[in-house]
């Protein structure tokens, strides 16, 4: 470790004096007039532990690198925001959480304030760091659209890691719609300028659509709740990210009463056997789409679960042929499933077993293309009058499977397990052997002609 704290490598910018480590770094000459700490930054890390000093040094180094990049490279990062982020990291390096001055002024933070003041005396602490410790760095005026970019790129990227490209696009589409609706109504305001009146304008706009004074509703309560909820989440997440988790959320407690969601009707058993499984009924569908439809009948799976099966999840060589409905862990092509309880093993019986004997590699045409599959199936079923009513959808196959299990007397917990529903008790064991699951499903299997596959 060099005496000047400028050594490169693992102990760069570290200087030990009087038994304590210091962060010592020179401000680039080109930025000397823009960084008030110039020409030299020197700050006590208040520790004699080298590992702790390195960790604190990393936070300070990253903060300075980002700040200088914003000032030097034609503003690739907003300078005001870079200064704010740098302040947060400097405070974190000293063992505190950044809080604005108006928050620290509240009585419950008195002990915290005293600890902060004590940490900057009697040792010399750079003025910018001292100001950051007592919350005197102004929150940058980040707009709603910019806050959403920060939300996606900095706050929740870990939540998107296991989503497929299609899942990410769908996730962002729903969130972006809420952002766009707010901006269209109120403007791309700075987050710190959003008021309760702005939130109420959004609420009233949705109220006009959900419960108009004249005419029919054009949107459901769930649509309005989703939009307002997404703005509420963005507001909370953004201000928590910048060190103001206590800030009052203007979108809080704004929601619409929802009627109980009407379940999609199931296909009647007779409709399945005499319409869907009738030889030739699905002949006009391409082979993979037809296979997916037939697989839905005896698995109760979601269409996206069948469409995205990997060859390794189609286990025909096992003693009991089955599907493993599970997340896709491929780092180049990940995919998550709806919930943890959705991960399950489903024995293959009847027409589903026949389908996978033919499609051992799955359905690559529709892998990561669930929307294309849905459009193709809906168009075909409507054109050939394969839906009993206008309320029936492709998802009705799943409801039919559940009803057939119930009518066949299958154990309720087994039904929940095979459907991928949550079991309302601690789960013990594997939920019964695959042999038992298969034998239970054979009780409700539908007759079919091999030619339909």
Can you walk through the features of this model?
With 453 residues, the chain is mainly α. It folds into three domains: 14-133, no CATH class; 144-241, no CATH class; 269-452, hpI Integrase, Chain A, CATH 1.10.443. Helix content is 46%, strand content 6%. It is built from 18 helices and six strands. It has helices at 50-72, 79-93, 101-104, 110-119, 127-133, 144-155, 157-160, 165-186, 196-210, 221-241, 269-276, 287-299, 303-307, 350-358, 370-383, 396-407, 412-419, 434-441, and strands spanning 14-17, 20-26, 40-44, 314-315, 322-325, 344-347. The strands form two sheets. The protein has a three-stranded antiparallel β-sheet, with helices on one face. Strands 4-5-6 form a three-stranded antiparallel β-sheet. Helix 2 (79-93) crosses helix 5, helix 6 crosses helix 10 (221-241) and helix 12 packs parallel to helix 16. Residues 1-6 have low confidence and may be disordered.
Identify the notable features of this structure and list them briefly.
about 450 residues, 3-stranded antiparallel beta sheet, 6 strands, DNA binding, Integrase, DNA recombination, DUF6538
